Amino acid sequence: xxxxxxxxxxxxxxxxxxxxxxxxxxxxxxxxxxxxxxxxxxxxxxxxxxxxxxxxxxxxxxxxxxxxxxxxxxxxxxxxxxxxxxxxxxxxxxxxxxxxxxxxxxxxxxxxxxxxxxxxxxxxxxxxxxxxxxxxxxxxxxxxxxxxxxxxxxxxxxxxxxxxxxxxxxxxxxxxxxxxxxxxxxxxxxxxxxxxxxxxxxxxxxxxxxxxxxx
Length: 215
Hints:
0% strand
């Protein structure tokens, strides 16, 4: 790594540590600079805002989940985009919602919309794959509206879960979230039930404990 890359990595690590210990809202850009031993100018050269940190945190997180699921699927069975998304979702929420400090961080950025603006385009592409896999007939204008509705539902569900208004195991919450999406797009109920069962079995039969959002 170059000196600049090492500095960027040190700053990023400091940000994750502070977000974990203090939360997103209580952590300032200046605190991250001080904690990483860099000047504010040097830090903002690599990360201009706190949302820049959020984008990288979740990009790394998603990459880790994708790699882990792919590795554990080796020799398992071929799966389509919806099945893969279901498996990923099980791991995604497990690491987000089982650690109280990570859950608080996730809650804060969910309310601020810092996360959803980052993942919107990626999810858009994934959902288009659903249409191809199941030959779903949805007009572009309807698709855009469903995408917005799904994001709103996910945001509200996550908020209520973190606030304790939805009381269920994290596994059940993960299944609720993705099955709600599937129903919005018209994926058949028999498919949803089958995939939800297979995703739960897959998740329980493999170890994803090494995947962390922050520390």
